[in-house]
Design brief:
Elements: E1 3-8, H1 15-23, E2 28-34, H2 38-48, H3 55-60, E3 65-68, H4 75-84, E4 88-91, H5 99-112, E5 116-118, H6 126-136, E6 143-153, H7 165-168, H8 172-186, E7 191-199, E8 215-222, E9 227-236, E10 244-252, E11 255-260, E12 265-270, E13 273-278, H9 283-295, E14 304-305, H10 306-325, E15 329-330
Parallel strand pairs: 1-2, 1-3, 3-4, 4-5, 6-9
Antiparallel strand pairs: 5-14, 6-10, 7-8, 7-15, 8-9, 10-11, 12-13
Length: 331
């Protein structure tokens, strides 16, 4: 029996990649997608060939699992609806706009007896897992500091809601801080204090970002005594040959290790310009395979659960709180 999957929302930029991979998986029956925006639904259906169905009808078709790819502001409603229908959930990040919404989503899944996974594909990188093993087994000695970078082109050209505070909760900080926060959680670190500066790019440079943060620098202090910085921004121009970077330096008493998750790429120049084509591990594929494993009730899962998504959300919301209060926030 194939695993029955549905997409709830098509607003997220990752929805296309998920649809393409699932469509090509012979063990999956992709039931279709729901989407409130008629314009967006028509475009997504034309690109993917998937059926656009009302949410209630899609959930009544009995999916084993759903992938929530809507605007962040709609996550809670869709997760609660999916849980009520008995479907396991893979939810895009950040999982919610508020901690209250995140806790309500967890409660809905617990009451329905369904699993919740957060879409953190970076933790599936073999290089990330090797670095985690090195950190946890003392291969670098006592960890002193982490230096993380997550830069990209702003996604609001493809999906305007990413720079709408009501729908996204913020700008580059909401979009990017969570990935590195999840890696610190994966490496066993517990955040104690958060300080941050989140600022919009000057209006004369990028007027479309006048209302939201387009650059951020976050400083964390961990219970272990180590510290970390997260340099998170939409700093890459539209002409940049790939969407961005995710890098991490880890400094210990016995060594330094550098991680560049998307370094494996080829430079291609043609009539359309120059771009970098990645040839490394397909992290989305690993994450989706893991979620399919969850949906078929097998025991092993390497994915980020609700707790991981919640801890990352705590960090990003604390960063915005620190910016608003101009002082460190204690968790």
């Amino acid at each position: 029996m194939p695993t029955r999957i549905a997409l709830l929302g098509a607003a997220h930029v990752h929805a296309d990649a998920y649809a393409a991979w699932l469509t090509g998986c012979k063990h999956v029956e992709l039931l279709g997608f729901s989407e409130d925006s008629p314009h967006l639904a028509a475009e997504f259906a034309a690109r993917t060939g998937l059926r656009h169905l009302p949410l209630a009808q899609l959930l009544e078709s009995g999916p084993d699992g759903v992938i929530v790819c809507s605007e962040t502001a709609r996550h809670r409603f869709l997760v609660e609806a999916a849980a009520q229908a008995g479907a396991h959930v893979l939810c895009e990040k950040p999982i919610a706009l508020t901690l209250d919404d995140a806790r309500a989503m967890n409660q809905a899944c617990l009451q329905a007896g369904v699993e919740f996974r957060t879409a953190f594909p970076v933790r599936f990188s073999p290089e990330v897992q090797n670095l985690r093993h090195m950190v946890l087994t003392g291969g670098l000695g006592q960890i002193l500091a982490y230096g993380g970078v997550n830069h990209s082109v702003c996604p609001d050209r493809e999906r305007q809601w990413f720079s709408d505070p009501l729908m996204a909760g913020g700008g580059a900080g909401m979009d990017h801080i969570v990935h590195l926060a999840d890696l610190f959680h994966l490496f066993g670190e517990q955040v104690e204090t958060v300080y941050a500066r989140l600022v919009p790019v000057p209006e004369w440079v990028l007027p479309e970002h006048a209302r939201v943060d387009a650059a951020a620098l976050v400083t964390l202090r961990f219970a272990s005594g180590a510290s970390a910085t997260i340099d998170s921004s939409w700093s890459r121009p539209r002409t940049y040959p790939r969407w961005g970077h995710l890098k991490l330096d880890v400094t210990g008493t016995q060594g330094l290790q550098t991680l560049d998750v998307f370094a494996e790429s080829l430079a291609i120049t043609n009539s359309e310009g120059r771009h970098w084509a990645g040839y490394g591990t397909d992290l989305n594929a690993l994450m989706l395979r893991d979620f399919l494993n969850v949906c078929t009730l097998r025991e092993h899962s390497s994915g980020a659960d609700w707790h991981a998504g919640y801890q990352a959300l705590r960090v990003v919301l604390a960063a915005y709180q620190a910016e608003a209060g101009a002082q460190a926030v204690h968790l």
